[in-house]
Design brief:
Elements lengths: L13 H8 L10 H10 L19 E7 L3 E8 L7 E2 L6 E7 L2 E12 L4 E12 L5 E2 L7 E4 L8 E8 L4 E6 L4 E6 L4 E2 L3
Parallel strand pairs: 1-12
Antiparallel strand pairs: 1-2, 2-9, 3-10, 4-7, 4-9, 5-6, 5-8, 10-11
Length: 193
């Protein structure tokens, strides 16, 4: 008598992943659970990402893989110890998976903010671990967060970000100085170039 063992979940190439992502109905991008489940059920083969990976010792890189009216898919490359600013996503949903390495997501609650005056008061809330088996979603009710690649892990990391509706600016925050302001976002590479 044989005992059935669960089959290892097969990984998709980034091209297969993108093809499947494009099949999701528009309503999927309006709810957090649908795309998060998609990321969990469609892990990406890290080797297939190589055309989209670009590294910089000074700053993490943002590499556009795919873009439509509904979403953009970006690979972010993190050297050891690199971190994003504390930021939001301009009222857009965001889902993240880490096919390479482990990243930490520190979430924040905005107690007060005045963009025109450039002032804010924020406080840290929960911290989430993002890895190959644990994709995370940004909470639409409290979307301010920071992603970092812990130096103690001593490894590079790559995260895939799906943003519902492309956007090219975000608000960055300083919890230390109580300041905030809008910045323009740029891609390091687009479509592997």
């Amino acid at each position: 008598m044989s005992i059935a063992t669960p089959r290892a979940q097969s990984q998709l190439s980034i091209q297969e992943f993108t093809s499947e992502l494009r099949k999701l109905p528009p309503a999927s991008f309006e709810r957090v659970d649908a795309v998060q489940r998609f990321l969990r059920e469609h892990p990406v083969d890290p080797d297939s990402l190589s055309p989209y990976l670009c590294w910089d010792h000074q700053h993490y890189t943002r590499n556009l893989i795919d873009k439509s009216d509904l979403y953009e898919l970006v690979a972010i490359c993190w050297e050891v110890g690199q971190a994003s600013s504390i930021h939001n996503h301009r009222d857009q949903n965001c889902w993240m998976a880490a096919p390479i390495g482990t990243l930490m997501v520190q979430n924040y609650r905005v107690m007060a903010q005045d963009i025109e005056a450039g002032t804010c008061k924020i406080e840290p809330t929960d911290t989430l671990e993002m890895n190959q088996t644990n994709p995370v979603a940004v909470d639409p009710q409290e979307p301010v967060h920071r992603v970092h690649n812990p130096a103690e892990l001593k490894q590079r990391a790559v995260s895939l970000h799906v943003y519902s509706r492309p956007f090219d600016t975000c608000v960055v925050y300083s919890d230390q100085q109580g300041t905030c302001g809008v910045i323009k976002l740029h891609y390091t590479t687009q479509y592997g170039h």
